[in-house]
Amino acid sequence: MVNCSRFLGYTKDENKRLVIVPEEAEIVKRIYREYLEGSSMDKIKKGLEADGILTGAGKKRWHTSTIRKILSNEKYIGDALLQKTYTVDFLTKKRVVNNGIVPQYYVENNHEAIIPREIFMQVQEELVRRSRGHISTSGKKRNFSSNHVFSQIIFCGECGEIYRRVHWNNRGKKSIVWRCVSRLENTGLTCHSRTVLEDMIGLATVDAINKLIGQKDGFLTILKENIETVISETDNNIVSEIDKKLEELQKDLLRLANSKEDYNDIADEIYRLREERHKALAEEAGKKGSKQRLEDMEKFINEQSILLEEYDEQLVRRLIEKITVYDDKLTIEFKSGIEIDIEK
């Protein structure tokens, strides 16, 4: 049985099977799309409220915790993790989070998916990346920011620190520039890196994307080779093997518990295998995310027949991973791993 009360995107049919509610599914897709495009959970929340969209519980007010649950819920890819919670008191119906006290069961393809599996994996990877933030060369942790498309993707080629957006008034002339934080605050690092106009960075991204389009045959060959490499390194058997071991250990644990024998060693092994499974899933998600980014770039190059004429923020969010500022050039690194130098 899968609970679908207050569950945006699904309801149950007469056979108590999960079925998609189309208009709600579009809201779920919007949340995933906006998150991958760089929006923060708070920005997504405010956008949904501004558009008068109701939560799964029919409320006007959204919470970032609700957005996070939607972004990490495996049910949206058609899977179901059963017994996330369990009842501790059948009189009061009190339920608590299942931290391994009772067996959990992961059922793949349990119902129709709303979100493609590869998109879900990309979101899980992005959730981890944002929660880690960026540890700068000075050792300071800088939390994720989605205030601007260039936030935390511009780095200094001299000291390795990030660049920060600054509203500059130079001799009465106002402009928006990006400067290395080592020149804005005391990081303990000496840096003489240049200040870069925001408009110039935008033009550099246009030049890099156009260079990619103009030399598509060469770049497509590289992308195809990289995709083949990722596929050859992907091993889908690790998780299934761990699941088989866990299933056997769960049975042994229940047998020992029922006969009132000591089951601590088995319980410890179950916890160890669950950690191993989690790491294997994270590694697998990373490889699938890499493959998806490569395929996205391949698709973009194949579909783009004309050069860009102006700066496109959405393309920057979709394609570009990092920009490094040097004295004589900007190095644009795409999410596919391709790097292009632009002299600016």
Quick take:
By secondary structure, the protein is α+β, with helices and mostly antiparallel strands. It is built from nine helices and 15 strands. It has helices at 22-36, 41-50, 64-72, 117-132, 198-214, 216-233, 237-258, 264-303, 313-319, and strands at 10-12, 18-20, 80-82, 85-89, 94-97, 105-107, 134-135, 141-142, 154-156, 163-170, 173-180, 196-197, 320-325, 330-334, 339-342.
Considering the chains and any ligands shown, give keywords for the structure.
344 residues; alpha+beta; four-stranded mixed β-sheet; 18% strand; globular
Contiguous uncertain segments of 5+ residues:
none
- SSE order, one letter for each helix or strand: EEHHHEEEEHEEEEEEHHHHHEEE
Biggest sheet strand line-up? 9-13-14-15
Strand content: 15-25%
Query: Structural class, from secondary structure content?
Result: alpha+beta
Topology diagram in text:
Layout: E1 10-12, E2 18-20, H1 22-36, H2 41-50, H3 64-72, E3 80-82, E4 85-89, E5 94-97, E6 105-107, H4 117-132, E7 134-135, E8 141-142, E9 154-156, E10 163-170, E11 173-180, E12 196-197, H5 198-214, H6 216-233, H7 237-258, H8 264-303, H9 313-319, E13 320-325, E14 330-334, E15 339-342
Parallel strand pairs: 9-13
Antiparallel strand pairs: 1-2, 3-6, 4-5, 7-8, 10-11, 11-12, 13-14, 14-15
Helix pairs in contact: 2-3, 4-8, 6-8, 7-8
